[in-house]
Design brief:
alpha/beta, two-stranded antiparallel ribbon, 18 helices, globular
Length: 375
């Protein structure tokens, strides 16, 4: 049977050591400006953020910094901080008197459909101890390197200073190598890669990583090819890809908010499914957008087989929910779709618990998954 295989990237195809290193480097850039020793941001702390529904480091960094600032301001409530995060950090340095936050406490807040998590925290009134202008600058625009200082620095560390300047046409603020190149590691070997590429299998990269626009488009400026870097690393550079840059390109064509298209939205999985089968990324994006605008699945139906297995391999429930919703849409439209969801935990207790709550089969690593799954 035809198998459409939607492959998450971070935590699935690659061990995302680069993003984690860039996150820690970005947070500690501001921590050092505060005159504080480096923070040890544990993987369990980042898994806690994922349990809150915060999966992108672009949102994790401002939420972590807002938590640190809230803790500091609870001890120094009279501080009048400037609106720029770097200037605020420097201002804090003169008032700490040796104090250091001992724990980063993440407050509860509800996610808001169509908004990124950092923006949702702002809209929910969280971190209200932080002066309003600083809070707004820190938590809004987390996908805009021109607005968000945290995202701009994170992109320096992810891409490296030279590639940052080439991608965004901006001068480098710090000198650094690409931490993606230094710290990412492939999770699959030649045997697993061969299995994924067997006849009848149609794999596609399915990720919220930044990327270039669809291959069928022309302009690349402003789009960071981070998902492509990952596919090259694991030896799958030629499979279709539906990543954040592809969705952002679609959104710009139709005046949409990209956050409304990315997983857990079914649009992401619908576009990836069509791209997987046809090999045409822009066709997949347009078909998914047509369904989104009209609630009619005709463009999806004419570009997908009548019967197939829809397989997703993920390390978080956001992607699982996207594919589950897409499967329901396609079944309702009359296709014979068999949904198979497999979770990869890499030994994380938090990820294991999330998959168990959702009754999703899960595995510690690829060898265990391949032994149990029918791919």
């Amino acid at each position: 049977m035809t198998k459409l295989i939607l492959l998450d990237v971070d935590g699935v195809l690659v061990d995302p050591g680069g993003y984690r290193a860039a996150l820690r480097a970005t947070v500690n850039h501001f921590v050092h400006l505060m005159g504080l020793p480096e923070f040890d941001i544990t993987e369990e702390k980042l898994s806690e953020l994922e349990r809150h529904g915060i999966f992108s480091e672009w949102d994790m960094v401002p939420v972590l910094l807002a938590s640190i600032l809230t803790d500091i301001l609870s001890r120094h409530p009279g501080l009048d901080l400037p609106s720029d995060p770097a200037s605020a950090a420097i201002s804090i340095r003169d008032h700490l008197n040796g104090y250091r936050p001992s724990e980063i406490l993440i407050p509860e807040f509800d996610l808001i459909p169509g908004h990124y998590p950092a923006e949702a925290a702002l809209q929910s009134g969280r971190f209200d101890a932080i002066p309003a202008a600083l809070r707004r600058n820190l938590l809004s625009g987390s996908r805009d390197v021109h607005h968000s200082h945290t995202t701009r620095l994170f992109q320096h560390y992810s891409l490296g200073s030279r590639r940052f300047s080439e991608t965004y046409q901006l001068p480098a603020e710090v000198e650094t190598e690409s931490l993606l190149s230094l710290h990412d590691r492939s999770n699959i070997d030649a045997s697993i890669r061969g299995k994924l590429l067997e006849a009848g299998n149609h794999p596609v990269g399915f990720t919220a990583r930044p990327s270039a626009p669809p291959r069928e488009a022309n302009s690349q400026i402003g789009y960071a090819p981070e998902a492509e870097i990952a596919l090259e690393l694991v030896g799958l550079p030629n499979i279709p890809l539906v990543a954040f840059g592809r969705l952002e390109y679609l959104a710009r064509q139709h005046q949409l908010e990209p956050s409304s298209l990315v997983k857990p939205s079914p649009i992401h999985a619908l576009a990836a499914s069509v791209a997987a089968f046809t090999g045409d990324e822009w066709l997949g994006l347009q078909a998914a957008h047509h369904w989104h605008q009209t609630s009619h699945a005709d463009e999806l139906l004419k570009n997908l087989p009548k019967s197939f297995e829809l397989i997703v391999i993920e390390d978080t429930m956001g992607g699982m929910n996207s594919v589950k919703a897409a499967s329901g849409i396609l079944i309702q439209a009359g296709l014979d779709v068999t949904l198979k969801m497999y979770g990869l935990t890499s030994g994380s207790a938090a990820k294991t618990a999330a998959f168990e709550r959702a009754s999703v089969p899960h595995f510690k690593d690829w060898p265990a998954l391949m032994e149990a799954a029918e791919l």
